[in-house]
């Protein structure tokens, strides 16, 4: 692996497409900005349901990672479970937010929750779950 030269970063920023105006950002800078914005995305939902297919992380570890990432943002309840998939003997981990292990990162599927009670019944159906916080109550 080669060391990055001190001027290398500056050179990448100074590359401009042919005919580009001097005061416009380059394509590389725009892409970098977009990547930075992805980290701070907005979800417009009061309750969120996340699933992580084929996730082999223990429930306690998943709960700890999600809690660390979201409790400072006003999340009051997290429910994590392991769900058996008998057809291919794999396990699925539905839970709230993104997680990773030393070997792999897991990206979830995010859905807005219309009925917290129905989602909690679904997640708790196999009996292999843990939770933390105060469960939402529907009116």
From TrEMBL:
<keyword id="KW-0190">Covalent protein-DNA linkage</keyword>
<keyword id="KW-0255">Endonuclease</keyword>
<dbReference type="GO" id="GO:0046872">
    <property type="term" value="F:metal ion binding"/>
</dbReference>
<dbReference type="GO" id="GO:0005198">
    <property type="term" value="F:structural molecule activity"/>
</dbReference>
<keyword id="KW-0808">Transferase</keyword>
<keyword id="KW-0540">Nuclease</keyword>
<dbReference type="Pfam" id="PF00799">
    <property type="entry name" value="Gemini_AL1"/>
</dbReference>
<keyword id="KW-0548">Nucleotidyltransferase</keyword>
<dbReference type="GO" id="GO:0003677">
    <property type="term" value="F:DNA binding"/>
</dbReference>
<dbReference type="GO" id="GO:0016779">
    <property type="term" value="F:nucleotidyltransferase activity"/>
</dbReference>
<feature type="domain" description="CRESS-DNA virus Rep endonuclease">
    <location>
        <begin position="41"/>
        <end position="88"/>
    </location>
</feature>
<dbReference type="InterPro" id="IPR001301">
    <property type="entry name" value="Gemini_AL1_CLV"/>
</dbReference>
<feature type="region of interest" description="Disordered">
    <location>
        <begin position="1"/>
        <end position="23"/>
    </location>
</feature>
<dbReference type="GO" id="GO:0000166">
    <property type="term" value="F:nucleotide binding"/>
</dbReference>
<dbReference type="InterPro" id="IPR049912">
    <property type="entry name" value="CRESS_DNA_REP"/>
</dbReference>
<dbReference type="GO" id="GO:0004519">
    <property type="term" value="F:endonuclease activity"/>
</dbReference>
<keyword id="KW-0238">DNA-binding</keyword>
<keyword id="KW-0235">DNA replication</keyword>
<feature type="compositionally biased region" description="Basic and acidic residues">
    <location>
        <begin position="1"/>
        <end position="11"/>
    </location>
</feature>
<dbReference type="GO" id="GO:0016787">
    <property type="term" value="F:hydrolase activity"/>
</dbReference>
<keyword id="KW-0479">Metal-binding</keyword>
<dbReference type="GO" id="GO:0006260">
    <property type="term" value="P:DNA replication"/>
</dbReference>
<keyword id="KW-0378">Hydrolase</keyword>
<protein>
    <recommendedName>
        <fullName>CRESS-DNA virus Rep endonuclease domain-containing protein</fullName>
    </recommendedName>
</protein>
<keyword id="KW-0547">Nucleotide-binding</keyword>
């Amino acid at each position: 692996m080669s060391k990055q030269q001190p001027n290398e970063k500056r050179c990448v920023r100074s590359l401009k497409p042919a005919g580009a105006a001097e005061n416009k950002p380059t394509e590389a800078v725009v892409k970098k900005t977009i990547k930075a914005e992805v980290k701070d995305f907005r979800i417009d939902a009061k309750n969120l349901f996340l699933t992580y297919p084929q996730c082999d992380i223990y429930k306690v570890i998943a709960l700890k990672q999600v809690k660390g990432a979201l409790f400072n943002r006003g999340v009051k309840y997290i429910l994590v479970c392991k769900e058996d998939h008998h057809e291919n003997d794999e396990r699925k981990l539905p839970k709230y937010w993104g997680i990773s292990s030393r070997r792999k990162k897991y990206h979830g599927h995010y859905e807005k929750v219309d009925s917290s009670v129905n989602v909690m019944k679904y997640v708790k159906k196999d009996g292999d779950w843990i939770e933390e916080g105060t469960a939402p109550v529907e009116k």
